[in-house]
Amino acid sequence: MGLLTVGQKFPAFEKTAVVSLEKGKEFETITNSVHTKDGKWLVIFFWPKDFTFICPTEIAEFGKHNGDFKDRDAVLIGASTDSEFVHHAWRVHHDDLRALSFPMLADTSKSLSRELGILTEGEEVCYRATYIVDPQGIIRWVNVNDLSVGRNVNEVIRVLDALQTDELCPCNWQKGEATLS
Amino acid sequence: MHETIQELLADLGIQPEYTNPILQQLGIADSKYLRDLKLNIKAVLASEHLSAKEANLLALAISTNNNKDILSNAFTAKAKENGASDAELAEAQACASLLAANNVLYRFRHFVEKETYNNAPARLRMNIMMNPTLGKEFFELVSLAVSAVNGCEMCVKSHEQSVLQHGGTESRIWDAIRISSIVTSLGKVVY
């Protein structure tokens, strides 16, 4: 299956995620309505495997910017094909991940990653894919890096800003438009 | 204290002790302008085509655009009396602030008329325009009124069209412009 891209509907999903390290409150079920129900945007990023070297830096960087995503009415989610228990163990054991403020989604069955078309051949782990999905559930941006290439979170924010700053004002009249005939 | 000034302040719901040098001078000279101003304000706010709530929200947006705190407070109270919610009051003021930005930006584009600036994205958030609490027609009407005060020709032309497209009428537009002109003149004397 090919890569799902701009203009297509982001697939429906229902997955368990690690949302906290507090006992009894570690796990939550998250569906694709997590953002659409409140009219928010979704920023979801995938990484290949927990307990590897490049990922925590990148994930911590997304975590540091979660306030920027919240300011922009966007729900941030991180995901891989590891189970929620592996996610939980990784968060407990890694200093940079303990205080994460966004859910780590467990796509254990790989159904979401497969539908998105972001699994590597053979090992079937996720490429470093990042999606921006609008409040209507439509994919507005996708970026896929190969396994060894980390992401620039500021670039994700720049794209989100660009998508959210339509010139909605009728003052933005341009020559040839019907408005001022 | 001068009787007409007292009546003017009472109409606006401003405390009778309020004064300033300009108002004092008009009072000392018993200027005929005071009566005209008082009657103008009463007349424009009593529009046949705008509800009392709408008239006062427009007056509020113009006062905010013109940085007249005392008038913003007065028209906030009056709009509230006529049923405006906190969300509507906030939106009228937010609209004034956003349009002040857009008037600067687009007026610049219109003045210079260079492809470079016309095609350069503004990269400004205007998302409150999307689903306004006040409704699209009235939001556009407030936008038009603020643009008229700030003197952006193309903004005025495009928002005038937009109000009509959203079901507004020329009578409503004209009354909104009369309010904007008189609230601006009021701000020269009560500020």
Describe what this molecule looks like in 3D:
The complex is a heterodimer of chains A (181) and B (191). Chain A is of the alpha/beta class. Chain A has helices at residues 33-36, 54-64, 66-71, 84-93, 111-116, 153-164, and strands at 14-18, 27-31, 41-46, 74-80, 104-106, 128-133, 139-145. Chain A has a single domain, classed as Glutaredoxin. In chain A, 27% of the residues lie in helices and 22% in strands. Chain A has a seven-stranded mixed beta sheet with strand order 2-1-5-4-3-6-7. In chain A, strand 6 (128-133) and strand 7 form a beta hairpin. Chain A is globular and about 55 Å long. The termini of chain A are far apart. In chain A, 34% of the residues are buried. Chain B has 191 residues and is mainly α. Chain B has a single domain, classed as AhpD-like (Up-down Bundle). In chain B, 71% of the residues lie in helices and 0% in strands. Chain B contains ten helices and no strands. In chain B, helix 3 (33-45) packs antiparallel against helix 10 (170-186) and helix 4 crosses helix 6 (86-112). The longest helix of chain B is centred in the middle third of the chain and has 27 residues, at 86-112. Chain B is globular and about 55 Å long. In chain B, 41% of the residues are buried. The mean pLDDT of chain B is 96. The A-B interface holds A 161-162, 164-175, 179-180 and B 102-103, 105-106, 118, 121-127, 129-130, 140, 143, 147, 152, 154-155, 157-159, 161-162.
Output the keywords.
heterodimer, A: 181 residues, alpha/beta, Glutaredoxin, 6 helices, 27% helix, B: 191 residues, mainly alpha, AhpD-like, 71% helix, 0% strand, globular
